[in-house]
Amino acid sequence: MRQMMILLAAMLLTCCTSESEVNAQTNDGQGAAVYFTSDITAESLVKIYEALGVSPTATQRVGVKISTGESAQTNYLRPDFIKPLVQRVGGNIVECNTAYGGTRMSTASHRQQIAERGFNDVATVDIMDEEGTVNLPVADTKHLQYDIVGSHIQNYDFIINLAHFKGHSMGGFGGVLKNQSIGFASTTGKVYIHTAGSRTSGGIWYNNNQEAYQLAFLESMAAAAQAVHNYFKQEGRDIIYINVMNNLSVDCDCDGHPASPKMKDIGILASTDPVALDKACLDLVFNYNSTSGDNASDLQQCINRQHGTHIVDYAEQIGLGTKSYQLISLDQASSVEGTRSTGSLRYNVYSLDGRKVLTNAASLDGLAKGTYIVNGEKTIIQ
């Protein structure tokens, strides 16, 4: 009989409430702390931010990175939802222009959309590439030589990366890693990432072997996200991460006419580790207890089709963060258990030389005897 030397079910989701328990979990090598609440309200958004215990100082200049959405029909995070948090930290909303022919490709039309959707009533909205770009160094140069971002990034010392977690036609899904890579990139920077460092103009499409292109694109996003993370992890700066898992369409907020969500909202999650945060959200999607009228299969298929989970695998590989985490519920009666089934865990498996063997597999049956990396953990199959 093949046996797994892994306690995945135990480490996947752990809920606790006391401060001593939280400290024990985050300091014992069991992974990054990821906070969770099923209550998707403006008040809970502030509460989960406060739970992270990382706040800007009185002198730090704060930016809250969101997506302003492609149309009023898009599932972007609404102004009344984000307003208490943005005003709590005294921040500006920060954005960049897009690289496709939509409503936000130019600063003028982007500002019109921002005004029409009510974001100016929340705070000052800064389009970071309005006055040009700067290049951030990248630690991983496999595809990119630098990360091209809006020059106004230099105006901020503290960033709240506030992302709407959902599907995406190209990336498979969008969370804080996408919001930090594509989201911080200027128009030229977006093209550079989408084409895996091949060019900075001529559109975001990259004609090559589809699977090879997709992996290169995801790896480029991870490298760009790391560049922004490293920029804000210098002395005197900081960055934190929040994913809102509502309106879980297979389409991104860059789609002006997104498909209706087939599954119900899950909650808000937050961490100081972007890899752990996106991984926790993916686990909640892939282990969702689907029922009639509340089915995660469309989103799961969208992520699988685009090899979407590769971004967290690669982000961990290059040292941006860890996929190991402890999920800490802020709810009095945790509802996290209701969002997953321990009988349908998914596995991403690599050989020790880095070759991917299984992607989001429901089982490890069929693996030859040996040692593998399963969901970030060294595992012996015997």
Task: Summarize this entry quickly.
By secondary structure, the chain is of the alpha/beta class.
Share in helix: 25-40%
* Secondary structural class: alpha/beta
What is the end-to-end distance? 7 Å
H/E element string?
Answer: HHEHEHEHEEEEEEHHHEEHHHEEEEE
- Tally of alpha and pi helices: 11
Major β-sheet, in short?
A: 8 strands, mixed
Instruction: Give the spatial strand order of the biggest sheet.
Output: 4-3-2-7-10-11-1-12
Radius of gyration: 20 Å
The average pLDDT score comes to 86
The stretches of 5 or more residues where confidence is low (pLDDT under 50) are: 1-27, 337-344
| Strand residue content | 15-25%
Overall body shape = globular
DSSP strand tally: 16
Oligomer: single chain
Written description of the protein model:
α3 (42-52) packs parallel to α4 (79-89) and α8 packs across α11 (310-317). The chain has 11 helices and 16 strands. It is globular, with a radius of gyration of 20 Å. A hairpin with a 3-residue loop joins β8 and β9. The chain has 382 residues and is α/β, with parallel strands linked by helices. The strands form 4 sheets. An 8-stranded mixed beta sheet has the order 4-3-2-7-10-11-1-12, sandwiched between helices. A 4-stranded antiparallel beta sheet has the order 14-13-15-16, with no helix packed on it.
